[in-house]
């Protein structure tokens, strides 16, 4: 009695598709990331067949791009990036997973997975670290300004935390850079160029905050 109703629901093409992850990130300088795995889950009580489509198939190799998933089981789909070039950095590609019941041709559901090639995992971590430092410093300065009494007539000057951060940044800029052989400062105190750039950036934000007070 319920079979026709179930078939009618499936034909509508709104069947949820469960796949993990929903985003693939490849790093040009890390060959271990050039091979990614998508896992397709079938939580239903009937078998599904699947097909993987891509907006740029010439850039990827999809192992077992079509197949079947047994009821309440899962299958791994291996995707390899085969065109790692700088011209592809930051370009967003899309994979589409279409599923259907084995006895039907029409897709019952679909799910898109985005893929991006980035130049370096280290650069990505550096950008995220700088973003976290900037957000933390901005929140600290905002909290400091919001906690000041509104009826004050004379500025009390920068806080001890702001002055301390400024002194630390100045000291970091005065330390030798990695590669300075003639320096008498111990090697563990030598900073990289990127670290000094972060210190200079933070010092600039502190200077602007002090001038506004």
Automatic annotation (TrEMBL):
Keyword Transmembrane applies: yes
One of the GO BP terms on file: negative regulation of transcription by RNA polymerase II
Coiled-coil ranges (or none): none
Pfam family, one: Motile_Sperm
UniProt cross-references to InterPro entries, sorted A to Z: Ig-like_fold, MOSPD1/3, MSP_dom, PapD-like_sf
Domain (MSP) ranges: 16-143
Keyword set, alphabetical order: Endoplasmic reticulum, Golgi apparatus, Membrane, Transmembrane, Transmembrane helix
Record localization: Endoplasmic reticulum membrane; Golgi apparatus membrane
UniProt cross-references to SUPFAM superfamilies, sorted A to Z: PapD-like
Membrane topology: Multi-pass membrane protein
Transmembrane segments: 160-179, 191-211
Main location (coarse class): endoplasmic reticulum
Recorded GO CC terms: endoplasmic reticulum membrane; Golgi membrane; nucleus; perinuclear region of cytoplasm
Cited function: Plays a role in differentiation and/or proliferation of mesenchymal stem cells. Proposed to be involved in epithelial-to-mesenchymal transition (EMT). However, another study suggests that it is not required for EMT or stem cell self-renewal and acts during later stages of differentiation.
Record protein name field: Motile sperm domain-containing protein 1
Designated gene of the protein: MOSPD1
């Amino acid at each position: 009695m319920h079979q026709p109703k179930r078939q009618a629901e499936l034909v509508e093409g709104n069947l949820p598709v469960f796949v993990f992850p929903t985003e693939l990130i490849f790093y040009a300088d890390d060959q271990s990331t050039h091979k990614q795995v998508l896992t397709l889950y079938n939580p239903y009580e009937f078998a599904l067949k699947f097909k993987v489509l891509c907006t740029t198939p010439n850039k990827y190799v999809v192992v077992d791009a079509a197949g079947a998933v047994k009821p309440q089981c899962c299958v791994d789909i291996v995707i390899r990036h085969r065109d790692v070039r700088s011209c592809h950095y930051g370009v967003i590609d899309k994979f589409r997973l279409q599923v259907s019941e084995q006895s039907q041709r029409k897709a019952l559901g679909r799910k898109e997975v985005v893929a991006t090639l980035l130049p370096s995992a280290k650069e990505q971590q550096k950008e995220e670290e700088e973003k976290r430092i900037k957000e933390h410093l901005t929140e600290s300065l905002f909290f400091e300004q919001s906690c000041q009494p509104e009826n004050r007539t004379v500025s009390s000057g920068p806080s001890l935390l702001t002055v301390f951060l400024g002194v630390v940044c100045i000291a970091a800029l005065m330390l030798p850079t990695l590669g300075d052989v003639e320096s008498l400062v111990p090697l563990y105190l030598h900073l990289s160029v990127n670290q000094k750039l972060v210190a200079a950036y933070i010092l600039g934000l502190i200077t602007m905050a002090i001038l506004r007070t």
